[in-house]
Write a structure and sequence with these properties.
Rossmann fold, 139 residues, globular, alpha/beta
């Protein structure tokens, strides 16, 4: 389990220092920094993070945070196939469907790491909370 998609909530936990979740988020991104783990996000995740951070910080500060994040993670592609799969899926949340099908389409992701695992019930990929992932990764 070395390639993961990190959902928005996990990254926002770190940026907003939402305790106790920010510790797990920092640990996972630390693994990326140490090249022990390859993590991905989607363009939708980047957009959501920008939107939410921009409510509390200026444009330049948010851009700097996102640039730093992108030194630790890669961005998955989203194309028409991903969008159509999401539109035609049984996912209740369209945004989560987009993330899921971008990860599935990449054929590169082992696990989606999110605090909202119930939103990914329809996924063909493994889905874990950050705490669950850390426990498995440490073994």
């Amino acid at each position: 389990m070395r390639k993961i998609l990190i959902d928005s909530d996990v990254i926002l936990d770190l940026f907003f220092d939402r305790k106790p979740f920010s510790d797990d988020a920092a640990f996972i991104l630390g693994l990326c920094e140490q090249n022990q783990l390859t993590a991905y996000v989607t363009p939708v995740i980047i957009s959501n993070i920008y939107y939410l951070l921009h409510k509390t910080a200026g444009h330049q500060k948010v851009i700097e945070k996102l640039q730093k994040l992108l030194t630790l993670v890669d961005v998955l592609s989203m194309d028409k196939k991903v969008v159509l799969n999401a539109l035609n899926s049984d996912f209740k949340d369209f945004e989560d469907a987009l993330q899921n099908f971008a990860a599935e389409n990449s054929r590169n992701i082992d696990v989606i790491v999110t605090r909202n695992i119930k939103d990914y019930k329809k996924s063909n990929l493994g889905v874990m909370t950050p705490a669950m992932f850390i426990k498995v990764f440490d073994k």
